[in-house]
Design a protein that fits this description.
Layout: H1 3-37, H2 50-69, H3 81-104, H4 108-130, H5 134-139, H6 141-160
């Protein structure tokens, strides 16, 4: 990797982690108050688990975005690198929006609607990334799995409350 690649990698990871920081602004204050009062399903993980999982997922997202970003436009053949990165940005925005909907607005229903849109955007991003870099697409697989689990959790919380 060249020096400029290291800078691109750092930028991609920082941008991804920023989505988590935005989400945490709404999450941190709601966990000990509003979220603590909700009925939760038996498969609800302990609250301390979410931060390390999300931090790791944001790093993987950043690395995946970097792998797409560093590709030469000509080398992506029929796939559109800029379109793939736009989809990535969209799913990142939806990721931050989910925290606003669920925790900020105290709405499991709006969170459920948001997480469905997020799941679709992640799947779409994976498909776009796969055309350019199989590794980048696979780096997003744990994220899609975690959001699938989060959907089940969000749905259960909505039903129970």
């Amino acid at each position: 990797m060249q020096r400029f690649d290291w800078l691109k990698l750092a930028i991609a990871i920082v941008i991804s982690e920023c989505a988590g920081v935005i989400g945490s602004i709404f999450t941190i204050t709601a966990i000990p108050t509003w979220y603590a009062t909700l009925a939760k399903p038996s498969f609800n993980p302990p609250s301390w688990l979410f931060a390390p999982v999300w931090t790791t997922l944001y790093v993987l997202m950043g690395v995946a975005a970097f792998l797409i970003w560093r590709k030469d436009k000509a080398a992506t053949a029929g796939a559109n690198r800029n379109a793939a990165l736009t989809l990535f940005a969209l799913q990142l925005a939806l990721n931050a929006l989910w925290s606003i909907l669920f925790f900020g607005m105290h709405s499991p229903l709006f969170g459920l609607i948001g997480i469905i849109a997020l799941w679709v955007a992640i799947a779409w991003t994976i498909m776009a990334f796969y055309k350019i870099s199989h590794s980048a697409a696979w780096l997003l697989a744990p994220y899609l799995l975690w959001v699938s689990f989060a959907f089940c959790l969000n749905f259960a919380i909505w039903k129970l409350n």
